[in-house]
Amino acid sequence: MRAKISYLVTAAVLVFYFVLVGSRGVMLIQSGTVVTVTFGVAVLILPVIGLWFLWKNTQFVRRANALAAELDAEGGLPVDELKRLPSGRIDRDSADEVFAKRKAETEATPDDWRCWFRLAVAYHDARDTPRARKAMQRAIALHDGKPAGA
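Given the sequence above, the corresponding structure tokens read:
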């Protein structure tokens, strides 16, 4: 729940910022000179890109959470079997061990979105965020019935 609140607050701040920047872009365009119109258009592009990125990220998070809920209902969420350091951080060797298990599971059944979901969690635990995201995207695509390259 804490992560959702943080995400919503961050999204709200970003939207506020995009509106603020967008209004400045409109003001520049309304000035009417070639230079200010050019800058105004350039300034308006930033909030559009930002809103697009925020929308895509929000879709990704919602779909990943939906998969987590479905997997939880099936009783298939990965169990936290990781050893922790006294500081509370995950022991790297333990994360590597679990990762190897999840990778082998995914290689054995590459078309099962559940395996890809669990592999994404293992990547995340191993602090490999880019691969965790790609594995989760693969899980979402498989769940939605999209082909391998989608």
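The radius of gyration is 21 Å. Try to locate this feature in the token string yourself.
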